[in-house]
């Protein structure tokens, strides 16, 4: 199975700041990576697919990058509504696996 | 509008079966993959099953293989997750999501609690 190591586990940042969340795969996943946002008590929502493609309706302050085994999610100009947990997911191979999540708070 | 609505969760004893349903609307269900993902209380996400559009192929992780069966009824626009021999570690919120590989649309989830 492909292991997804996500960091940091938690993050505190100020409004307007730029934050970056990382995911490292245990082997090359050839850009088969998605990012999700989950607000408390809600279902996860897709942000990014294919490592760098923005899902419909997602604000452009979210962006994804990376290749091979290293991927990142960047949030520019942090806003209060971005408080949530964020998860990466690889779909290059079965079983699909998720990162352990990053909890983002406002400082 | 794409909608996925799960139902069928509840409190069951260890070793019991339970069948979850996922009612779909707002898209062509018969042309889409259906997936189930779960989340234990306060924990991360775990993929548990996928089925292809016509239902001829299914996929599971080792943690549920042999106990869970995913299916879909394209005539009823409904997907199912039959869970057998449930264990305490199966306690989680269960979500259905539209595939095939990234999950663009999710339901609101149904809670399954396995406890004596």
Rg of chain A is: 13 Å
| Count of DSSP H/I helices of chain B | 0
Task: Report the biggest beta sheet of chain B as strand number plus sense, adding barrel if it closes.
Answer: 7 strands, mixed
Taken from the alpha-carbon principal axes, the silhouette of chain B is globular
In round numbers, the mean pLDDT of chain B is 97
Low-confidence spans of chain A: pLDDT under 50, at least 5 residues?
A: none
Strands of chain A, total number: 11
The fraction of residues in strands of chain B falls at: over 45%
Outline the structure in words.
The complex is a heterodimer of chains A (107) and B (116). Chain A has 107 residues and is mainly β. Chain A has strands spanning 4-7, 10-13, 19-25, 33-38, 45-49, 53-54, 62-67, 70-75, 84-90, 97-98, 102-106. In chain A, strands 2, 4, 5, 6, 9, 10 and 11 form a 7-stranded mixed sheet that branches. Chain A starts with a strand and ends with a strand. Chain B is an all-beta fold. Chain B has no helices and 11 strands. In chain B, the strands form 2 sheets. In chain B, strands 2, 4, 5, 6, 9, 10 and 11 form a 7-stranded mixed sheet that branches. In chain B, strands 1-3-8-7 form a 4-stranded antiparallel sheet, with no helix packed on it. The model of chain B has no long low-confidence stretch (mean pLDDT 97). At the A-B interface, strand 5 and strand 10 of A face strand 5 and strand 10 of B.
Note the topology.
The complex is a heterodimer of chains A (107) and B (116).
Chain A: E1 4-7, E2 10-13, E3 19-25, E4 33-38, E5 45-49, E6 53-54, E7 62-67, E8 70-75, E9 84-90, E10 97-98, E11 102-106
Parallel strand pairs in A: 2-11
Antiparallel strand pairs in A: 1-3, 3-8, 4-5, 4-9, 5-6, 7-8, 9-10, 9-11
Chain B: E1 3-7, E2 10-12, E3 18-25, E4 34-39, E5 45-51, E6 58-59, E7 68-73, E8 78-83, E9 92-98, E10 105-106, E11 110-114
Parallel strand pairs in B: 2-11
Antiparallel strand pairs in B: 1-3, 3-8, 4-5, 4-9, 5-6, 7-8, 9-10, 9-11
């Amino acid at each position: 199975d492909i292991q997804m190591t996500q960091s940091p586990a938690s993050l505190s940042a100020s409004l307007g700041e730029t934050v970056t969340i990382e995911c490292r795969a245990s082997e090359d996943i050839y850009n088969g990576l998605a990012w999700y946002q989950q607000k408390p008590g809600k279902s996860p929502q897709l942000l990014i697919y294919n490592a760098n493609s923005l899902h419909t309706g997602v604000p452009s302050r979210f962006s994804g990058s990376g290749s091979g085994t290293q991927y990142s999610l960047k949030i520019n100009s942090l806003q209060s509504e971005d408080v949530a947990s964020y998860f990466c997911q690889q779909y290059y191979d079965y079983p699909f696996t998720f990162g352990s999540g990053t909890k983002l708070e406002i400082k | 509008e794409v909608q996925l609505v799960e139902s069928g969760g509840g409190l069951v004893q260890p070793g019991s079966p339970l069948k979850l349903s996922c009612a779909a609307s707002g898209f062509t269900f018969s042309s889409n993959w259906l997936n189930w993902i779960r989340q234990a209380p306060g924990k991360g996400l775990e993929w548990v099953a996928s089925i292809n559009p016509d239902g001829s192929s299914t996929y599971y992780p080792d943690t549920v293989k042999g106990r869970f069966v995913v299916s879909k009824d394209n005539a009823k626009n409904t997907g199912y997750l039959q869970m057998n021999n449930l264990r305490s570690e199966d306690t989680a919120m269960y979500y259905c999501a539209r595939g095939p590989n990234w999950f663009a649309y999710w339901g609101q989830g149904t809670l399954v609690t396995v406890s004596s």
